[in-house]
# Entry
Amino acid sequence: MAEITIAGVMRAGAYSPNHIGNDAAIFNVVAEHLRKRGCIVNVYSEEQLIAGKVTENIIVNMCREQKSIALLQQLEDEGKIVINSGYGIENCTRERMTRILIGSNIPYPESLMVNTNEGIKDALEKAGFTQCWIKRGDFHAMHKEDVSFVRHPEEAQELLQEYFLRGIPRAVINKHLVGDLVKFYGVQGTPFFFWFYPFDLGHSKYGHEAINGKSQGIEFDVENMRQICQNASEVLDVKIYGGDCIVSPEGDIRIIDFNDWPSFAPCRIEAAPHIAKCILNTIKERK
# Structure
């Protein structure tokens, strides 16, 4: 496979809050696996991608910058192989993700999608939302405040006003789900699927895991979770993925977050060969 030359575009640090080292680590390990399989992997930054330095026909990336995503979509339209797809990365922004998952009957919390300059207390009370999560709807989270837990409609209204003042035009409001918080990682088209309780292992990006707290060990069907996550990856068009689920006291599973190419921090070594295989299989299919 010496003829396969790949551009590897790393994630800009601003989009790896508290995980810059972990994001770089999984990317570098995957690149090494591809090189061992005979590929040439040239590594670039998002800034170099935007500057037009990437000329390879195969682009493996962890991009999150808006300009990067638009450029990846353009390159994809021109026939280049892009993994994860620029369209898939955009699909993981909150409002698009919410619409796609709900529209595809993927188990997901009851949600409202709103303008940040509107009054929402009546709508929340009518929908039966008391405790809920407010998340910026227009793009990926960059700061802790882009995903916020609120305890009543009045607090939700105040937070939405803060979003408006920060220049965030749209927000998604998810009803808070009670149960065990489970983090998952998967690779489309492979048997790889890894899950764990993030709070119990001290794994955190913003500290929100403390809201649901220590897991109760509620029994659930792991194969059902894997299938739900796999279905989500397909409808969102994201091959290398991760996210979070809530397992209810009854064992029901709902996705509450889904991310394009996360850090795979607790399972990096195990995941890397499967990610490399997914990339090579995608290249073979396209060629």
Summary: The chain has three domains: 5-84+267-286, 110-175, 180-260. The two ends are 13 Å apart (CA to CA). The mean pLDDT is 91. The CA atoms of residues 130 and 152 lie 5 Å apart.
